[in-house]
């Protein structure tokens, strides 16, 4: 019997408008009413994750930053797994040498040193997601999204990290040309060692400490509650979900998931635009 459901957010729990559909909210509430716990597992940091969840009035534990930060339903930190300052600087050196735009996540902040580059990248991402939208509208949408998602722009990323007493929990690098372009930098980062390198989109790579993975965090969270892997269901759509889909006894890929994730998962549900999370939860409850 399932006692814990873990769901990725982007491309899974959220639709393409970055909202939790009403059907998904109702399914979560139905599961909770039957004594099943629900936890989100996302690459997002707290400040970004809570925006969509607060809009949906969902207050549950969260695995954040791919497992580097875990909080309870009151959003109090349970534990963090930092990359380490010295290794962070090595990663930054490699990314900058490759000429990629990147952002750095701590428990409290998201840091960037290039606001125009961020708007440019995300406007192009919106154009890919919404065929027919003009570049001007995409830039406006990207700027509006930027105003809603807390991010701190700094002149000198290294000096900021030296001055601030905050642990770096995740680094994300972007390239609009996708996997082929990111393959080279991934190889360089793997040489550094003790890093987990995954992706939440084809156009990014996410770098964490090797022990900061969704599956590891989910396993620890479940075991603290006395749940076995067979009592856990996990839902996801992309490569940073692999570890938790591999761990969970019931693994579900979204209909919009990349093919490799569909092969790993034991089940495939509807897409995130078709309320696939609700479909999967309803099926489990009916069984």
Automatic annotation (TrEMBL):
GO terms for molecular function: magnesium ion binding; phosphatase activity. Gene3D superfamilies: 3.30.1240.10, HAD superfamily/HAD-like. It comes from the Bacteria. Signal peptide: none annotated. InterPro entries: Cof, HAD-like_sf, HAD-SF_hydro_IIB, HAD_sf. PANTHER family: 5-AMINO-6-(5-PHOSPHO-D-RIBITYLAMINO)URACIL PHOSPHATASE YCSE (PTHR10000:SF55), PHOSPHOSERINE PHOSPHATASE (PTHR10000). GO terms for cellular component: cytosol. This is HAD superfamily hydrolase. It comes from Enterococcus avium ATCC 14025. PROSITE patterns: COF_1, COF_2. It holds the Pfam family Hydrolase_3. The lineage of its organism: Bacteria, Bacillati, Bacillota, Bacilli, Lactobacillales.
